[in-house]
Amino acid sequence: MPLILHNEFENGEIGLWEISEALEELELLADLTPTDAINYSGISAIHRKKEWLTTRALLNELTGERTLIKYHNDGRPYPDNANYQISISHTKGFVAIMLHQTCLPGIDIELATRKVSRVASRFLSPDEFEVCHEASGFSNHKLLLHWCAKEAIFKMVPFSDIEFSTDIQIKLGEPIRDSGSFQGLFIGKPGQVPVALEYLEIKGVIMVWGCSGEI
Known about the structure:
Blueprint: E1 3-9, E2 12-18, H1 23-30, H2 34-41, H3 46-63, E3 69-71, E4 77-79, E5 85-91, E6 94-100, E7 104-111, H4 120-123, H5 126-132, E8 133-134, E9 137-138, H6 140-154, H7 164-167, E10 168-171, E11 179-188, E12 191-202, E13 205-212
Helix pairs in contact: 1-3
């Protein structure tokens, strides 16, 4: 089973799965509920089927039981009949899940090779823009850390119309390594809410996660 990362911490846990199984094996591991089986039958693309099944298989692995994933009107997932909150992210070949019992989790993953410099102005503030710009040009690693961090915080927020460049701010420290922590800030209806974030690069995937009980 390609569960390449499973970190447990107080009141929560994180799992990262590399998708390498055949579709038939994933169908067995996902152990779909009747409701999920109906939803699954409507998916046609093979890569989407694998991501969808892996999400259920990973959740089963983390919780030790079959759980139905439902969705709020704004698209945020939540587990049916469970005492924890959930955040899900996927990129090509990988799925990540974060569970937490006492606060709103947020997790995001991206391939470290993904280039996002063309859209940097859409999600970076002027200060963040300067942090990500070095003598030789943009640091793609820093750009992706900002992108994943803002996506992770966005997944904690039960509001719509969030402007990434102004409503979510990231304070990236130095030096940047393969793992570490930094601070995020959500500016919205509750006021200014600080969010502690952690990051890790593993097997060519950048992952950022955090949790907030105040948003």
